[in-house]
Amino acid sequence: MLFKSLPCGAKTCWRARAIGLASSLLPVFLLVPLAQAQTGYHILSVPGSTGDLFGHMAVDGNGKMYIAARCYGRTDGGFSVIAVLPDGSLDPAWGTGGVVSTKLTDYGSEARGIAIQTDGKIVVTGNATRKLRPNQYVNYLAVVRYNSDGTLDRDFNYVPPSKKGNKPETYGTVIDSPGYGWGVMVQGDGKIVVEGLTSSSGSGQAAPIVTWRYHADGTVDTTYGTAGRAEGYFGDGYLTAAPLDPVDNNLDFHFQGGGILCGARIFQSGLGQILGFMRFQANGLLDPNFASGGVLRYSIPDTAQNVVHGGFAVDADDRIVTIATPDVAVDDCLAVVYRFNLDGSLDPTFGAGRGYRGINLNVFGFMRWWPQTTGGLVLDADGKAVIAGYDYDHIAAFVARVDMVAETLDLTFGETETGVVLIPTPPDAYPQQVAIRPDGRIVVAGNIGPNRFSRRIFFARFLPDGTPDPSF
What we know:
By secondary structure, the chain is an all-beta fold. The chain is built from one helix and 36 strands.
């Protein structure tokens, strides 16, 4: 049993039992291909893989999940996509036993971002490593499109065989300029937009945010930016760097106001971390109508500038809703929800005129909750913010819901009347994304395990009221 009931005044709450979990339960879960630990929760182990790094997930209209991942140890390549049916089992119609791995180069690759087109095809981005010379390896942006059965799409970047016959035809993949693909979205006209980082630098800065755009057939959209590529910097002394540990992914992006809005946790030289956003126009230029020249840098006044960014969403009024954890309490809370207007200004109708509000996630006695980064926040049909994360000591994972009108935790969410629900995982679980299905069910996914090379993917599902989904 992972949790026990403890008295909390007149209510009942649940507290993780940390003793013995790491040594006794975790190895048992990792030995089986798909283990159900408790209703609504699974740990996934990909056959032939020694460890699986979660990238992103996408959920189709029928509730099927597609997970982009790097699977270590597989001979067919680490750039992998896993398909999970609504009942939590692997989809036998996708690739081999529910898994597709694509070998892009001989030196490794990673899948991170994933999107589903309206025709059911799956677009995935990440990076592929190439060897330029002895002891020099460079990561290149990779984009791959699959048919609904997991085969590569012949209509995507098709290159016919050479006339001499020494080069076969290729299709389904694009390997572009040096960089890392972090997320992918599909526009209404079918064009594909990728967000990521590049290793290039300038003006004392490192790793600018980069967006690429392609036509639906995989060719570069030269009307966007410079030759299909646009980049932006947060300014001198501000760095946006790819984290060493994938559970600290720090990029997210959405469409907003006809443009492409990118959010990041940025590093201010000598001062720590702050929130950062930049918006590109439809032509790839930074939007002069957003913040300062298309770039927004923000930290809460009178707090330490060291913030863990918890992802963001765009609401029905094109406002940015985001969450972060500063080093200094706000409203006696160590989690803060912000709302910014379309122009990048703080929304004075939220947080008593400030545009931000402290939210008390510390309802179970843990020292501190971290709302996880990439994709850790999503808005439901009622505009409420659903958040996933973990506690400071990596003992427990959670999902919570914030009422953006009342500006408090939604106490109707979950069984404990607190607005926060613990996910019954062993320690070292890192929820990295939360998504909402068309039927309102909430899906949380991420990695579990202390070592990045042996981690596994876990996922959990809840009913709209926050109770575990008994059908999963």
